[in-house]
Amino acid sequence: MPANITAVAHFVPPDVFPNSYFESRLDTSDEWIRTRTGIKERRFLLEGATSDLIVPAAKECLEQRGLTPEDIDCVIVCTVTPDNMFPSTAATVQRKLGLTKAWGFDLSAACSGFLYGLMTGAALVESKQVRRVLVCGADKMSSILNPDDRSTFILFGDGAGVVLIEHSEDNNIGIKDSILKMDGKGGDFLYMKSGGSANPPSHETVDNKEHYAVQDGQTVFKSAVVGMADVSAEIMEKNNLTADDITWLVPHQANLRIIDATARRMGLSPDKVMINIDRYGNTTAGTIPICLSELWQQGKLKYGDGVILASFGAGYTWGSIYLRWGMK
Ligand code: COA
Question: 3-167: what fold?
Fold first, then answer.
């Protein structure tokens, strides 16, 4: 019996920051941001933490399935911006939602966090360790962005997407296959230098702004274009899929040019590619479940549709998941 997504929802904060907001603060322009990234605006959470992004979306998942908090067995929070170093944000979400029967944990795989979490959740369900898992992809990126760094501040946004995974009786749908990868050598190009056990926070680390995300954009870009396109082509080949078998590519939303290169490599026309980077920027672990939730809300996902999820992010981590949509 395959593991299947049986509910999906998202939450983005209400405060919208268009590109013009950055023009007055940094040496940048709306034109540069739009043409180099595809982003027009993003949302920042002004008060609250990553768990506050997750809770409304998770509640909506429960409502969609008519479940109570006690029906959830496990909660996985994929994030690089946990509420605290510890306890886990999963534990905080468990408390805030009253998931009294659930255990859970945080999972750190940056922009690929949701794919890693989805596979982990699916494996737990398929092995019958648990019946119902909430997999949450969420980041409050604004909490680790340097407002003086034009190469990162303009790229990211805050948001969360949550899916519920359960068994399906129908073998034709559900999560079919995954290819997940990691290359720790990429850690030199996208990271946060201090705040962890390697460089615990001190006056000096804060003065040096080492508690902010740093990225060598061009190096990451080159690896992302190749990595995301290759792994997506690989999962198609492995499952004997042609472009006709795929209704939607749901890619991580880091840069429109990376997304276009991936779709081209897969032979997919642009109308099969989910894009919302223009409205939300890069919400890290949030991008893919937010995309899925919006597609579902807009009635663009039908039972049995072939979907490929693809991501690339810090670590490096990257991967692709093939699924047949299983919500009616
Ligand atoms: N506004 C205006 N100019 C900017 C700028 C900004 N916000 N950010 C950088 N620039 C400048 C650079 O300083 C550089 O100027 P120079 O030529 O005088 O040195 C020029 O624009 C080009 O910079 P570059 O970094 O080569 O731009 P790019 O085309 O690679 O685009 C990114 C930058 C970050 C948008 C792009 O590299 C990218 O998307 N990288 C990958 C992101 C990603 O996938 N991350 C992984 C998942 S989180």
Answer: Peroxisomal Thiolase; Chain A, domain 1 (3.40.47)
